[in-house]
Amino acid sequence: MKTLNLITLSLLTAGLTSPVFAQQTEVEQNDFYLGARLGVFSADSDRVAVKNGQVFSVKDGLETTTSGIEAGMMFTEAWEARIYYDYMDAELDGPGGGISGDSYGVDALYHFTNSFYAGVGVNNTEIGDVTDIAARLTLGHRNFINDNLAWRVEGGVQQGWEEDYTEMFANIGLQWFFGGRDTSPEPRTRPEPQPAPQPEPQPEPKQVDSDGDGVVDSKDQCANTPKNYSVDENGCILYENETITEELLVEFDLNSSNIRSGERSDIQDMAEFMKEHPQLDITIHGHTDSTGEAEYNQWLSERRAEAVANALVEKHGIARNRVDFKGHGESQPKVRENSAADRQDNRRIEATLKVVNRVPKTR
């Protein structure tokens, strides 16, 4: 019981002192860590153990202490995989006294933020030669003490598969991160040696710049250039590339390939842009949300793309050989679908045209 009180006190202390030991350090893809863990385990009231050939009930409540090791890797900035092993020290009802056990398993953890995560896993718990395999749910909080060392506190519940055991756990841990983290300090630049002072040059005779472009008449090969244009060393106008972009975004109702009346002005704007730039061709990309079968969504996305293509050709006079269309079904969502508004964003047509013009560079 004394050990249990120490562990409980440690858990409370970790939660209360988290602002003191917290550091704004982000986990990164391919981060790998090793850690030590210490915790408590609440056995199911029906769990039994075998000791000296006799069967005893394992005390329920937070009467079992655990200590162990763990290792994990961040496969993305949000998803983490972890394996662990815990040595268990349990108490038995009656004259059974104490008994040891083992617990090990694997977890898949998803990080909602840099600090909070949840996960699912598979666990094997053996106390007194009685083994049970369980599905485990975990909630946790992690903060960094420095760039490599982090502490964490977590708890959860596990449900047995072979036996109807429902059991809870809580633990704290320290984790040391290796590998993918870039914690090197910014390099310092050496001060450049100051050059020795040079004697001031004698002023050259003043030369005339008639057109005011910054190039004197004796070197100016393009006279009378406008003053607001940039020029090269010969006094001739400099040109730069100007990129003009026109984007088309058309949304559709659920299970429909009919173009809404409010979307037709965007199609007309794209048609005017194509008439101004006859060298450009267009490919229209149709998309759907994830509602329904994938084969049907592929067919529907092609119908939507074809409807917009026909509108450009038949209503706005764009040549048929300049317009192509493709359907992508539900394979390229614009947003992750969590609501009706998200699904609306994914029911869409997208097309982008760019043209590069050479224009005079202004000062």
UniProtKB/TrEMBL annotation:
GO terms for molecular function: porin activity. Pfam families: OMP_b-brl, OmpA. Transmembrane segments: none annotated. Residues 1-22 form the signal peptide. GO terms for cellular component: cell outer membrane; pore complex. It comes from Idiomarina ramblicola. It is found in: Cell outer membrane. Residues 180-227, 323-363 are annotated as: Disordered. Keywords: Cell outer membrane, Ion transport, Membrane, Porin, Signal, Transmembrane, Transmembrane beta strand, Transport. Residues 192-204 have a biased composition (Pro residues). PANTHER family: LIPOPROTEIN YIAD-RELATED (PTHR30329:SF21), STATOR ELEMENT OF FLAGELLAR MOTOR COMPLEX (PTHR30329). InterPro entries: Bact_OuterMem_StrucFunc (IPR050330), Beta-barrel_OMP (IPR027385), OMP/PagP_B-barrel (IPR011250), OMP_bac (IPR006664), OmpA-like (IPR006665), OmpA-like_sf (IPR036737). SUPFAM superfamilies: OMPA-like (SSF56925), OmpA-like (SSF103088). Residues 239-357 form the OmpA-like domain. Gene3D superfamilies: 2.40.160.20, OmpA-like domain. This is OprF. It is a multi-pass membrane protein. GO terms for biological process: monoatomic ion transport. It comes from the Bacteria. Residues 323-351 have a biased composition (Basic and acidic residues). Its main location: membrane.
